[in-house]
Amino acid sequence: MAEKSTPLARPSWLQALLSLVVPGLGQAVSGAFSRGFYILLSVVTLSGLAVFAAAQRPRYPDYSLSFHAYLAFVAESAALLVFLLAIYWLVRRYAMRTEFARNAATPAFVVLVIIVLGITAPAMIDTVLSAAELKKLYALTSLLTAFVTVAIWAWNIFDAAHLRSSERAPGMGTFYMLLIAGILVLGTRIVQINPEKAIREYKDTGVILSRIVWPWKVAFDYSESELVATADIQAPCPPGATPPPVAQPKEGQPWVSVTPTCGALSKRDSTGKPIFGTLLSIKGGGFKPNKKVHIQWANPLGDAFTPRGFGPTDIPVGPDGTFTTQLYIPDVTIPSVAKGPQIHQLRIVQRGAAQFTGKLSKEMKLALQAMLESIMMGLMATAAGIVLSVPLSFLAARNLMSTLHTTTQGFVGGVIGLVGGAYLGKLAGDWLTPMVGGLEKAPILTFSIYLVLVLGLAILAYRLLGRALTSAAEHLPAPVSLGIGIAGMALVGAVVGYLLGLGYAHGILGITRGTEGAVAAAPHTALLGAALGAFLGAFWAWRLGTSTTIPIGQMIYATVRLILNIGRSIEPLIWAIMGVIWVGPGPFAGFIALTIHSVAALGKLYSEAIESIDPGPIEALQATGANRLQTIVYAVVPQVMPPFTAFTLYRWDINVRMSTIIGLVGGGGIGFLLIQWIHQFQYEQAGLAVWLITITVATLDFVSASIREKMV
Q: For residues 542 and 548, what is the distance between their CA atoms, to the nearest angstrom?
């Protein structure tokens, strides 16, 4: 970022001294409080993050050692920077005669600093830390961050010396660049970016990546002859267990002998690195000579996979048809509810020449079926999202809701009617639903009856009681009308305060005092909340009086917006986990997750489209005496149809893409199949799933773009 060309003011040595002691203090003294605060915050934040990041090398960080090392690096960096700045000042003052040379001095100085720091860094680190301490810290991260912090501190002194006011402040380009450099150094360490490891270990993953990138061989069936030999292995091997017998050689047919036949499963640590279990010695014979055999492992359920990473899996056969090898028992998940001996099977397979049959493989059929499931999951979630989000979007549109106002009496009547009507609806549902079988025999019908009764009676009572109190207030004397409003708002405030008091007791006090203390305090906090709520409600009604109205539309708008923001801020993966807990693994859980997120996202997009419409048609219809419903149907809907269509198609595209991901947590679809294949190290099959996801998303993107072009 280029510096401002504002001429530098005459240096203020007092401000420079203050900023030398405390970064940003000189700026604050000169009146640039925000500037000084940001400088101090940057120095403190970089230092804190440097101490934290440098100490993360061992499992148990030593922050004391990291802090003292960081202070020593700051001192060394300050000495080195002062030395380099002195050279820079002397060269620029006495050696640079032309304007071009002076302009080139700064980038040359930056290059010099990088070179010198790179050369001196090992010596600076060795001066501060011993060989044993180096194993406890990321020393280079600490040193580089210390140097950047010192550079910011030095710039801060120069800035304070030439700062007269925030209106005539020097540019902050250097500060921003140094701050970004420090963040990048820390981010590289915190994220553990290691290009050397990626380059060094690419060779080991090249085989796996090639299978994922080009998996089409497993998409079709091939007819081939196979020679197969198997051996049983028990794992885990509890004390006193009787292991399976060792298989013996068989004349004229393939055989495999494994010792021991009972052992421990391999495991993986928190980083995914295998902790090897029992090492098996494997001998086999009866196979075709001078060809390879392939090792497979079948878990107790019979699911076979290639145990890569636990020993060689493609073994050459000798001229006599025999082979020997070793293999660690791989990591296999054994359910906690499993009973009896867990017998695995080692399979030795030697395949003959394969012939293409043209038929889809079992894996390809499963992948296509799961992909169709994902597409339909996204489509159904989009359809449900449209139905639920359209009415919410009108309630979340500020321009439509801002015109809704009501009197204090109408607000009180509406709230009481809403709660009372909902309660009456519940009572009516409790009386009616047993006649149709209840939740156990007729859950959908029962839910529909409750929904209609509760919502219908709540809305009806809201309208009737609100209008009744409003009409009564218009015909009553002003003091009586005001009294009704004050009493009603006090009642509403008391109920809200009572509930908040209970929530405070069981929430906040439940943490600080425990469950028993919260239960004991709940009645008192509830009564206190009710009293405070009643007072605030009555005071608000008194301030409003009889002439001021309540913006009920704005309150509905804020409530609906809050609900939409909560639903949208939680990722579909989290909703999918909740859906799995609710209805179990499968596509239904994924549908629930996508629907909730679609309602929140589409509700926001639709409401913003409504807010951006031309108000002219609305005003014209209102001038003719049209009611609110007619205004929405004839003035709002025609204007929002094009953006609604575009947003809907875009959301369908998002839902299809997300439906392929939420399967990773049990939400059904192709993602569920993908994660299973990855866990079983079946990378060719996983590649099929990845390719199908890519092709489907690209196709849907093309289709939705074509539809938008024609309809929008």
A: 10
Structure token digits, residue 461: 């009572």
- If DSSP codes are grouped into helix, strand and coil, which group holds residue 30? coil
Please answer whether residues 236 and 265 qualify as being in contact, where contact means their C-beta atoms are separated by less than 8 angstroms: yes
Q: Which of 538, 557, 529 is nearest to 488 (CA)?
A: 538
- Residue 572 tokens, joined: 């579909």
**Which pLDDT score, from 0 to 100, does residue 76 have?**
93
Distance from the Cα of residue 171 to its chain's centroid: 37
Q: Give the other-Cβ count within 10 Å of 462's Cβ.
A: 21
Q: Is 255 helix (H, G, I), strand (E, B) or coil?
A: strand
State residue 711's pLDDT score: 65
Say which residue the tokens 């179990």 belong to.
584
pLDDT per residue as tens digits for the range 273-323: 888 999 999 999 999 898 999 999 998 888 888 888 889 999 999 999 999
CA distance 348 to 523: 72
Sign of the torsion angle spanned by Cα atoms 75, 80, 86, 89? negative
**Placement of tokens 């030795």 in the chain:** 348
Cβ within 8 Å of residue 67, ≥6 positions away: 51
Cβ neighbors of 138 (< 8 A, separation 6 or more) are 53, 54, 55, 56, 57, 189
Domains annotated for the chain, with CATH where assigned, are 13-193 (no CATH), 225-352 (2.60.40), 360-404+551-712 (1.10.3720.10)
Of 654, 667, 658, 655, the residue nearest 579 (C-alpha): 667
Structural contact between residues 676 and 587, judged by C-beta atoms closer than 8 angstroms: no
CA distance 448 to 432: 12
Please state, in angstroms and rounded to a whole number, the distance separating the CA atoms of residues 550 and 469.
Answer: 14
Going by DSSP bridges, is the β-strand pair 323-328/279-285 parallel, antiparallel, or unpaired? Answer: antiparallel
How is residue 425 written in tokens?
């609806």
Dist CA 592 CA 577 (whole Å) = 10
Torsion angle of C-alpha atoms 401, 407, 409, 413, degrees rounded to 10: -20
Determine the Cα–Cα distance for residues 631 and 404; give it in Å rounded to an integer: 14
Segment 216-220 long-range contacts (CB within 8 Å, at least 24 positions apart):
216/688, 217/684, 218/361, 218/363, 218/364, 218/684, 218/685, 218/688, 219/360, 219/361, 219/363, 219/364, 219/688, 220/356, 220/357, 220/358, 220/359, 220/360, 220/361, 220/364
Alpha-carbon gap, residue 664 to 708, rounded angstroms: 31
Look up tokens 């970064």; give the residue: 23
Phi, psi for 156 (deg, rounded to 5)? -65, -35
Q: State the pLDDT at residue 168.
A: 53
> Position of tokens 């159904």?
380
Neighbours of 92 (CB within 10 A): 15
**Regions of the chain short of the pLDDT cut 50:** 1-8, 165-167
